[in-house]
Amino acid sequence: MKRQATRRLDYEKELRRRGVRITRPRRIILGILSETEDHPDALEIFRRAVAIDSSISLSTVYRTMKLLGDMGAIHRHAFEGGPSRFEHASGDHHDHLIDIESGDVIEFKSDRIEQLQNEIAHALGYDIVHHRLELYGRKRGTG
Amino acid sequence: MKRQATRRLDYEKELRRRGVRITRPRRIILGILSETEDHPDALEIFRRAVAIDSSISLSTVYRTMKLLGDMGAIHRHAFEGGPSRFEHASGDHHDHLIDIESGDVIEFKSDRIEQLQNEIAHALGYDIVHHRLELYGRKRGTG
DNA sequence: CTATTCTTTGCAACTGACTGTCATCTGGCG
DNA sequence: CGCCAGATGACAGTCAGTTGCAAAGAATAG
């Protein structure tokens, strides 16, 4: 449970190392990102940020998400039919199963699939730069 | 090469069956969709349609793509960082490898991956409604 | 073939999700 | 503290797509 505080400090250290200033809005957004285990969108992050400091603007949230995304500190996911949703980039790679009823996101990982993807790309003469694998499903016995 | 004309007629028959009127703009768009083997976006379809009948509007293209998509006659793909691109829904399911340099789309199919996806979703208590698997890559020996 | 009906169209205004501009503000060093 | 490049809030602009509406045009009836 101390993981979160550590993660925020890691973010700040990394930002400093890159000559990025740690401002009040950024510290608040970093705090929100490091505490959440879900996949909030920009508006949701904005709402949570405003609850802490009402002067924060939505532009700053978007700018900060872009900055952190470019740095590789967070991942942006453009799931179907909605705004981008974010998660911190710590931990290793995984893909997502999206509950089409609730919007909940479940993370999973399959080395077999990754391996098959590489084989396929290779056979087609390509190197994979990145990929997107999303399963959209419904809880069994719920419809 | 007669496949395309047949496909357009199939589209029209299906539309009629659903009580949808076959208008001039729709016939033109259907013709474009049945002739192309690539994955054009709405604007590209619009450009091709205007070359045939300059009075067609972009709204009608969007509306027709939505109609055909809802009917399941075409598939809409929202690849990263660009507008939706479309392809006719004939033939069987496949996934896509996108050349990040040229935007070219290569179709591929892997029963092994599909099977693994189902196993994963099942293990998590879900039934897959649909999925999205996109590989973004670069041609080997090109960079 | 014409009248009637109800869908579809083109246009323009609108929306959601960002991105860019700019005057003002501020973090961090000196 | 004082400075000042980089960051911020406010808001205009963009991009892809959607929607409201009056006019046009399919399909059907007569």
What does this entry look like structurally?
- The structure is a homodimer of 143-residue chains.
- In chain A, helix 2 crosses helix 3 and helix 3 packs across helix 4.
- The mean pLDDT of chain A is 92.
- Helix content of chain A is 45%, strand content 22%.
- With 143 residues, chain A is of the alpha+beta class.
- In chain A, the strands form 2 sheets. Chain A has a 3-stranded mixed β-sheet. A two-stranded antiparallel sheet of chain A has the order 1-2.
- The interface between A and B is medium-sized, with 32 and 32 residues.
- Strand 5 of chain A pairs antiparallel with strand 5 of chain B, so a sheet runs across the interface.
- Chain A binds a DNA duplex (30 and 30 nucleotides) through helix 2 and helix 4.
Keywords:
homodimer, 143 residues, alpha+beta, two-stranded antiparallel sheet, 5 helices, 22% strand, globular
Summarize the entry for a quick read.
2 copies of one chain form a homodimer. Chain A has 5 helices and 5 strands, in the order ααααββββαβ. The first copy, chain A, is an alpha+beta fold.
Question: What radius of gyration of chain A results from the CA coordinates?
Answer: 17 Å
The poorly predicted ranges of chain A are none
Please work out how many helical segments of chain A DSSP would assign: 5
Which shape of chain A, going by the Cα principal axes?
A: globular
Helix content of chain A: 40-55%
Q: Largest interface, counted with CB-CB under 8 A?
A: A-B, 32 and 32 residues
Assembly type: homodimer
Strand order of the largest sheet of chain A: 4-3-5
Q: Which secondary-structure class do the elements of chain A indicate?
A: alpha+beta
Task: Indicate the proportion of strand residues of chain A.
Answer: 15-25%
Elements of chain A, N to C (H/E):
HHHHEEEEHE
Mean pLDDT metric of chain A: 92
Q: Strand count, sense and closure of the main sheet of chain A?
A: 3 strands, mixed
